[in-house]
Amino acid sequence: MAKVPEMELMNKGTTACPGCGAAHAMRYMLKALGKKTMINIPACCWAVIPGVYPSRNLEIPLLYTAFETTGASSSGVRAALNAKGVDPREITVVGFAGDGGTADIGIQALSGCLERGTDTIQVMYDNEAYMNTGIQRSGETPYGAWTTTTPVGSQKAWKKNPKKNMMEVVNAHGIPYAATVSIGHPELMIEKIQKAKDIPGPKFIHIYAPCPTGWRSDPSITIELCKLAVDSCVFPLYEIEYGEYKIYKKPKNKIPVKDYLKLQGRFRHLPQEEVEMIQKNVDKEWELLLKKEEFTNE
Amino acid sequence: MSEEVFRIVIDPKDHRDLPRAVITDCPSHLMTKTGSWRTLRPIVDLEECIKCGICWKFCPDVSIEVKEEGAVVDYDYCKGCGICAKECPVNAIDMKKEADYV
Fold first, then answer.
1. CB A28 within 8 A of CB A218
2. Beta carbons of A224 and B86 less than 8 Å apart
3. What interface predicted TM-score (ipTM) does this complex get?
4. Is the pLDDT assigned to residue B2 strictly greater than 50?
5. What is the CATH number of the domain that holds B93?
6. ω before A54 within 30° of 0 (cis)?
């Protein structure tokens, strides 16, 4: 297992909230990729976290782009490097977007980038809503969650739609490598990102990054929530390499989903039968994933 | 900052005449002292600390360093989230009220 490198490319003094999962996501990703990285960031939490001019938070070149253009701008940066004759294995181009900038607003640019086969890593750090603008629902918000646009009152109008499965969306492009990683397991996360770095072609990384502000959870349990999400199979850790599924972290003892839900204020309103339904759906998805792994590894 | 950064050509011929991207010499820790946000202060018991580095690994604000005497918190930047106290395997870190220290 890869160790967590000591090199820091993220400076102190970020304006992230206390206990921010996105700050972890960037810190570990840069530890994995090293200094020869160029990063594209659209409107998201990370457009705010580095602070204002003239402060410099990340020790790497960074390009801010419009919300929907992460895939397009990282393709452009890669094309410019190609024109200068820079080897893709030498300088890594990364598109680092939130769940809104990847799964909703930025999905066509992402799709274009993957389909053209541009040699980049597209990263989605998934905090399961538009946290930067004030906790609006996104395609990645799970069923049953409270957000400011799915408020809970007498009408019981929590989010009624399931979470979009981005791993399947990107896998449908036939890309060489896609993986889900979690900041609760930094060694595995660094290992998978370093693996993605060495594979030619478009890669996709789905980072699970809790948001204490938007999830209405205590800042101190950010890491614990990640571990619970993996152990309850809400967020399974797996990779898809040339179409072959591999679950690289299987929970030893599967815990009930309600242990994960009860720590978050955004699920506080859910009645017992809804929790049971969520449990049933999680079990179904997990079984399906196990079958996919079995089927593609025959 | 060098003068060349702000070189302005009135009638640019090609990209070489355009001003370059401005890269400042000011890392964010010189500008933003986020320690003032804190309501809880982590206090490390250096006698119990086993220097495993887990608090350093999980600190989202890069504010913990494991030195020879044990884990040392940089109170200028620590926001007091409490992840270090939660994840410490020997419970060597306590979260105390910041008001008692100011």
1. no
2. yes
3. 0.87
4. no
5. 3.30.70.20
6. yes
Domains in chain B: how many in total? Answer: 1
Cβ atoms A14, A57 nearer than 8 A: yes
Question: Would you call A18 and B79 a contact, using CB atoms and an 8 Å cutoff?
Answer: yes
Nearest CA in chain B to A18: B81
Q: Look at the domain A21-296 and name its fold.
A: Rossmann fold (3.40.50)
**Mutation for testing the B interface, residue in A84, A220, A227, A228 having most B CBs under 10 Å:** A220
Among B26, B82, B86, the residue with its CB nearest the CB of A55 is B26
In the chain, the amino acid numbered B55 is C
**For residue A150, which phi and psi values (nearest 5 degrees)?**
-125, 65
Residue B51 lies in a domain: yes
**Which residues on A lie below 8 Å from B62 (Cβ)?**
8, 10-12, 27
Interval A91-132: pLDDT, tens: 999 999 999 999 999 999 999 999 999 999 999 999 999 999
Using DSSP, state whether A268 is helix, strand or coil.
Answer: coil
Q: Which residue has the tokens 């998978």?
A: A192
Cα–Cα distance, A1 to B81 (Å, whole number) = 28
A1 confidence band (pLDDT: 50, 70, 90): low
Question: Residue B52 is part of which domain span?
Answer: 28-100
* Domain-located, residue B76: yes
Cβ pair A16:B74 closer than 8 A? no
pLDDT digit string, tens, across residues A42-54: 999 999 998 887 7
Looking at the complex, does the CB of residue A24 fall below 8 Å from at least one CB of chain B? yes
Tell me, yes or no, if B93 comes closer than 8 A to chain A by beta carbon: no
| Residue at B14 is within a domain | no
Chains A, B: CB contacts under 8 A, how many?
A: 101
Segment among A259-268, A270-279, B4-13, B22-31 with least mean pLDDT: B4-13
Mind listing the pLDDT tens digit for each residue in A24-72? 999 999 999 999 999 999 999 999 998 887 788 888 988 999 999 999 9
Residue B79 belongs to some domain of the structure: yes
